[in-house]
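From the pipeline queue, job 12 of 40. The input is one protein chain; the requested action is below.

Action: predict structure.
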Amino acid sequence: MRPQGRKEMMKRNKGAIPRLIKLLFKEYRKQLILVVVCIVLLAIASTIASFFMNLFIRLIETGLKEGWSAVSTKIYTAISVMLCIYAVGWAASLLQTRTMAIVTQGFMNRMRKRMFEKMQSLPLKYFDTHPHGDIMSYYTNDIDTLRELISRTIPQIVSSGLIISFLVFYMLYLSAWMALVVAAATVAMVFVTKKVGGNSARYFMKMQKSIARTEGFVEEMMNGQKVVKVFCHEEQSEKDFDRVNEQLCRDATNANRFANILMPIMGNIGNILYVMVAFVGGMLIVSGKVNNISISGQAMGIAVVVPFLNMTRQFTNNVSQLSQQINSIVMAMAGAKRIFELLDEEPETDEGYVTLVNAKEENGVIVECAERTGMWAWKHPHGIGTVTYTKLMGDVRIEHMDFGYVPEKTVLNDITLYAEPGQKVAFVGATGAGKTTITNLINRFYDIDDGKIRYDGININKIKKADLRRSLGIVLQDTNLFTGTVMENIRYGKLDATDEECIEAAKLANAHDFITRLPDGYDTMLTSNGANLSQGQR
């Protein structure tokens, strides 16, 4: 990918992270404030050792001159304070870890709910135009990148950023000369991180897409395994999978290659910096000719150099930790972008206002009732308080209908047909002639481009989609059974049906006999789309 293209891609993805963090703070503000407080306490506890090291060395130097009794009380007090600070840091670390676990899993739970609720509101067209394996990847791979970002990356960035800030201040407090040496090395670290980390990020984003393609291919092969075997297509399927898998391997190898060399490079820069600080500090002590420029006013000596060396090691480690988070951030950017694209999809619209209700006749007039009578009626609201009812008969009429799955290609042109109540109508035609399309349009899985479809004289655009589909019975070409018992799958079309009603329905469908021969009868558990049943039984 060209640098300009990479920058454009990063720019498109950047908005996803601020949106994610804003949503996170909106739902877990109190918990996150507590986490930040814990991180601050932990950062203080992590950097306080250098301060006490400087203090102890100065006290020891004083003790060598004036005797142990002159400094013993101060040393014991300093040790007690240091232990208390470490205890607070340990408690803060424990509280932070527990709180972040609650926040992370709670947020993931809510995001999955949002995604699934959104998915239920999407039109059928979305699922016809997106590979199912790619959609599944939202719930597995993409959501996992958010978990990594929230549980590890964000706390690590805040923690390392605070520790680096504290260390920079204390370095300047002890010696400006040696702080300049650290600053020079920091420039080198930033340059390396930008070059190596940028390449790593680019391939990690490609890896995300390759994972989605691979999952989509595997899901497709699992669903079509019988077709693969019937046509002896195993070898070709393996070749196709090898091609997809090899692409994933290349992207993952490149991503991890750059990611894995970043830490050793940063570590070596840190080692060089450590030696340079020790050398410069030693030269300043030995020469004695250069005054130590510092806020503390301490002369250059062991009490300055030794803590500074400790801070140098801690500084480089935290800079390395920050550089390592680039890959997690980029992957989370890609994952968050995909998830928000799903959440931002236009839901299925429904402008209908005619509903289906239980009804009965009183003195020749159709009235609505709460109980189920076996009679249904269309309820038409007219203005305020005015309602009319039309008995459900099942009269379907299509008038001069045009339709195309895409605007530029019409597949049905000027179609007119009807089916009266009780009439049997068969659509006969070549594959792709539009037979299934017509049934999809009657159910409003898609909306027509022109013309009208009337149901009992009512334009179906005026009927609420849920009520329209509830009034129709449709047997799909593809059999879909859900994980659950046979009884639960039969009850899927009418959730309040009794066991007796389900058994009666099975008898009407000539399924009762073979169901009773199943291991647990109507309580037999079905999994994997009813793989333990024959196609006819499904």
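Job complete. The longest strand covers residues 355-362.
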